[in-house]
Design brief:
The complex is a heterodimer of chains A (about 150) and B (about 160). With about 150 residues, chain A is an alpha+beta fold. Chain A is built from six helices and three strands. Chain B has seven helices and four strands. The radius of gyration of chain B is 16 Å and the shape is globular. Chain B has a four-stranded mixed beta sheet with strand order 2-1-3-4, with helices on both faces. Classes of the chains: A alpha+beta (about 150), B alpha+beta (about 160). At the A-B interface, helix 3, helix 4 and strand 3 of A face helix 3, strand 4 and helix 5 of B. Chain B: This is Glutaredoxin-related protein 5, mitochondrial.
Amino acid sequence: MLPSVLRCVRPVSTSLSLSRPLAHFRPHMDPDPSRPVERSIRTKLTDQLTPDHLEVHNESHMHAVPPGSESHFRVLVVSSQFEGLPLIKRHRLVNEALKEELSSCVHALAIQAKTPEQWGSNPSLAKSPPCLGGSRGDHTVEEKLKAGRE
Amino acid sequence: MNSLIRNTARCLRSGAAVYMPRQADGRVWTSSARFLCAAADVQKALGDIVQKDKVVVFMKGTPAQPMCGFSNAVVQILRMHGVDDYASYNVLEDSELREGVKAFSNWPTIPQVYFSGEFVGGCDILLQMHQNGDLVEELKKCGISSSLLEAEKESK
């Protein structure tokens, strides 16, 4: 069962800039067509949470998965839809928006869900803890990586 | 874990093998998937498990040896608050537990933290609660006095 968006993916874009440093640090304004999962996450969060500010970071390179994987993400969502909601409800909204990705290729999703006011008073992205290698040899992660490649 | 014990007994009578590892922290999760075959059994067992202890963590690895950075972060945060006596369940040992807890909590990722039977969230939420002081309050509601609160009192 593949997310429908993955079946529509075009081949890799030929317009990649070779002079771009640190290819894995892509600014959120510059979605990479060769990263369908990242694009799908960005689209769904934008559509469903109408964020004032959105960052989607592929952190797969920080984990025990092959280069180019789209399995571990960190998202920062700033939306007025979070106002009055406890953290757990905010995170559930994000999880719901990304249900398809989470049940197929995304293995880990770190979430920061802030209101515009909270973002204004503390505009910082949290850092993920160092990987302890748990994904290595984990057959569930292997299945998800396979789903992401197909 | 009466339901697990009943399931184990039923299983033993039928002759199926049961593997009951004891984790480093002394918490037993009967990890044989063969007798927890019905999803409903897993859900019922989880319902009992989260009520049985004040603090329950479903994680990758054990508190002594976490196998995931996010799970380790939960362990470290609890340790900072002096919470050492809690139930932890290693989802890497049992795929039925791993999938079952995601369905039980309706939460897609591990680690998962429960306080007094109520789902609190994962690593991100626990970290934010720790940073904004809510964790001390929530532990207090469970009858647990955070060591950070004690340290703060002593410094005044």
